[in-house]
C-alpha cells in the first residue's frame, strides 16, 4: 500500500514535469504544476507516513502537518500566480477558447 502510493506520487510528479516543459502557455503550465505536483507530493508523503506507521509503528506528526501544509498552500499559490500573470498582461495561448476574466478585467480597469 505504502509503496504504491509512493510510486503513484512519483508518476504524478513526472507528469507535472512533462506538463511544465511541454504545455504552450503560462496558465496551462501553472495548472500542470499546481495540480499534478501537489497530488504527487501528497501521495509520496502519505506513502512515507504509512510505511513507517505500518512497519515500525512510528506515528510522525510532521508528515501529517506537511501533507496539510501542501494541501492548503499549493493550490492557493498556483491560483495567485495565474491571477498575477493575467493581470500583468501575460497573453493567453492563441488557441484558447474561453477567457473568463476578460469582462472582470475591463470592469476594474475603468476605475
UniProtKB/TrEMBL annotation:
GO cellular component: a single term: membrane
Keyword annotations from UniProtKB, A to Z: Antiport, Membrane, Transmembrane, Transmembrane helix, Transport
Membrane topology designation: Multi-pass membrane protein
Compartment(s) where it occurs, according to its Swiss-Prot or TrEMBL record: Membrane
One Pfam family hit: PhaG_MnhG_YufB
GO molecular function, one term: sodium:proton antiporter activity
TM regions (residue ranges): 6-24, 36-54, 60-81
Superkingdom to which the source organism belongs: Bacteria
Sequence similarity: Belongs to the CPA3 antiporters (TC 2.A.63) subunit G family.
Name of this protein: Na+/H+ antiporter subunit G
Biological source species: Bacillus aquiflavi
Amino acid at each position: 500500500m505504502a509503496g504504491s502510493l509512493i510510486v503513484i506520487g512519483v508518476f504524478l510528479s513526472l507528469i507535472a514535469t512533462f506538463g511544465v516543459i511541454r504545455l504552450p502557455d503560462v496558465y496551462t503550465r501553472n495548472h500542470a504544476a499546481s495540480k499534478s505536483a501537489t497530488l504527487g507530493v501528497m501521495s509520496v508523503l502519505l506513502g512515507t507516513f504509512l510505511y513507517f506507521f505500518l512497519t515500525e509503528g512510528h506515528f510522525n506528526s510532521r508528515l501529517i502537518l506537511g501533507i496539510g501544509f501542501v494541501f492548503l498552500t499549493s493550490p492557493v499559490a498556483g491560483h495567485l500566480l495565474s491571477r498575477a500573470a493575467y493581470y500583468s498582461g501575460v497573453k493567453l495561448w492563441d488557441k484558447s477558447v474561453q477567457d473568463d476574466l476578460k469582462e472582470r478585467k475591463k470592469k476594474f480597469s475603468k476605475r
